[in-house]
UniProtKB/TrEMBL annotation:
Keywords from the UniProt entry: FAD, Flavoprotein, Oxidoreductase
Name of this chain's protein: FAD-binding oxidoreductase
Highest taxon, organism lineage: Bacteria
Domain FAD-binding PCMH-type: 37-216
Family statement: Belongs to the FAD-binding oxidoreductase/transferase type 4 family.
PANTHER family hit by this protein: D-2-HYDROXYGLUTARATE DEHYDROGENASE, MITOCHONDRIAL
Cofactor(s) in the UniProt record: FAD
SUPFAM superfamilies referenced in this protein's UniProt entry, alphabetically: FAD-binding/transporter-associated domain-like, FAD-linked oxidases, C-terminal domain
Length: 464
């Protein structure tokens, strides 16, 4: 059957107008935020129900057509890129919060629900959905589950998998499974729900997710602290963790701050400029908590770990301090950054960062290197900016060489080559630096069980 005939048959499975093949749609829906691979899907299909998703998967099995799931397309590992003539399955029209249970504190979401949509829904109910990151306004719950998204609150609340009570998924054969049934305690063998979280759509597609909610935090307060060097950040973390229950602990370099201030819409936190900055957040529920934070700040200054700092005194100031960290990724995207999202255990972070920073600077002194990340959970974002003199292809080729060296250091420290962005296509050739050959073999075997025809997001996590 020709491609044109296949697409005509696909159109019969969904509502009129819900299969697109025009060039603009193919380019838009065939990519994510990465710039490594050119999008080249053959069609975009927009199901509106679980039954339509099942029909699409069964059709793809019959004709051996590869499917790529598409959510908010904010991913940074090319997991949602269709570069080889696949059909993109967009969940934009499966975007409803279907149920709310106030006693269980759960919300049943379709996969196209925007992260901020769930956050706002929880807030309206006097509750809180804590998984948060810069792309919350456009990322979708299905994509968050597919990559086990983390973000800025992991130190307190954990990753997306901590908030998934149950899933309904369509496997690679078109079968519908209901996983865990929203139970808190369920000791009945393998938890298949957890297999689908972080699987990047390679086992099947999430069609419903029951998400847990939490109590709303009270009087969130942030501090931004300037440190004389990176080594000072870890004792600052240790000092504050000993006194406060932190909801976040982030860091960024002075070079990152320069890029943010150049935007012109966020003020500097204070006059002193320092090489690195820590941003921490906590619930100032009482005057005693606020006083403990200030006393800990003074202790850090006395120890020489902190040179200057500020604590938010209003909701607006809290938001402005967070913009210093959250605007970094969007701001530097215009410089064509090569991103690495790496992690080690928290205690190893200083030596780990020093090794990688030395490696990159010694081999590529003309590259501008920006560091930031969720240091409270051991997650560092290494961003290398493209020099104007290099073409994109030349730059990415040079960074591929850097990658090998960086991941050798990751392996040395028993770390992860992808802390929260997934593997996709950008990291698939490096998976062996974090996973053993035996582990990868078992992972491939699991995929073969759920997706025997190999149609579900092929070429992601593992090479084709």
């Amino acid at each position: 059957m020709t491609t044109a005939a296949l697409i005509e048959e696909l159109k019969t499975l969904v509502e009129p107008g819900k299969v697109l093949t025009d060039a603009d749609s193919l380019a838009t829906y065939g990519k994510d935020w990465t710039k490594h691979f050119a999008p080249a899907p053959c069609a975009i299909v927009f199901p509106k129900s679980t039954e339509q998703v099942q029909a699409i998967v069964r059709w793809a099995n019959q004709h051996r057509v590869a499917l790529v799931p598409s959510g908010g397309r904010t991913g940074l590992s090319a997991a949602a890129v269709a570069a080889n003539g696949e059909v993109v399955v967009s969940f934009d029209y499966m975007n409803q919060i279907l149920e709310f249970n106030e006693f269980d504190r759960t919300a049943v979401c379709q996969p196209g629900v925007i992260t901020q949509q769930l956050q706002d829904f929880a807030e309206d109910k006097g509750l809180y959905y804590p998984v948060d990151f810069a792309s919350a306004g456009s990322s979708q719950i299905g994509g968050n589950i597919g990559t086990n998204a983390g973000g800025i609150k992991v130190i307190r609340y954990g990753m997306t998998r901590n908030w998934v009570a149950g899933l309904k998924v369509v496997t690679g054969t078109g079968e519908l499974l209901e996983l865990n049934k929203d139970l808190i305690k369920n000791a009945t063998g393998y938890d298949l729900r957890q297999l689908f979280i972080g699987a990047e759509g390679t086992l099947g597609f999430v069609v419903e997710a029951t998400m847990r909610l939490d109590r709303a935090p009270r009087n969130l307060t942030a501090m931004v602290l300037g440190t004389p060097d990176f080594d000072s950040i870890m004792p600052v973390l240790h000092a504050f963790q000993g006194k406060l229950d932190l909801t976040a602990f982030e860091f960024f370099s002075d070079r990152c701050l320069d890029k943010i201030l150049d935007r012109g819409d966020v003020p500097a936190p204070f006059e002193t400029r320092t090489p690195f900055y820590a941003l921490l957040e906590f619930e100032a529920t009482t005057e005693e908590v606020a006083e403990a934070a200030l006393a800990t700040f003074e202790h850090c200054v006395e120890q020489g770990w902190v040179l200057d700092g500020v604590m938010s005194q209003s909701e607006q100031q809290l938001q402005n301090l967070w913009k210093l960290r959250e605007y970094i990724s969007e701001t530097i995207s215009h410089f064509t950054p090569y991103k690495n999202d790496i992690s080690v255990t928290v205690s190893k972070v200083p030596a780990f960062l020093a090794d990688i920073d030395s490696l990159v600077n010694s081999n590529y002194p003309d590259f501008e290197v920006l560091w930031y990340g969720h240091i409270g959970d051991g997650n560092l974002h290494l961003n290398i900016l493209k020099p104007d003199a290099l073409s994109k292809d030349e730059f990415f080729a040079k960074c591929a060489t850097v990658n090998k060296w960086v991941f050798e250091v990751v392996q040395k420290y028993n770390g992860s080559i992808s802390a929260e962005h997934g593997v996709g296509m950008t990291k698939r050739d490096y998976l062996g630096y974090s996973r053993s050959a035996a582990e990868i073999g078992y992972m491939k075997a699991i995929k073969a069980v759920f997706d025997p025809a190999g149609i579900m997001n092929p070429g992601k996590i593992f090479p084709l």
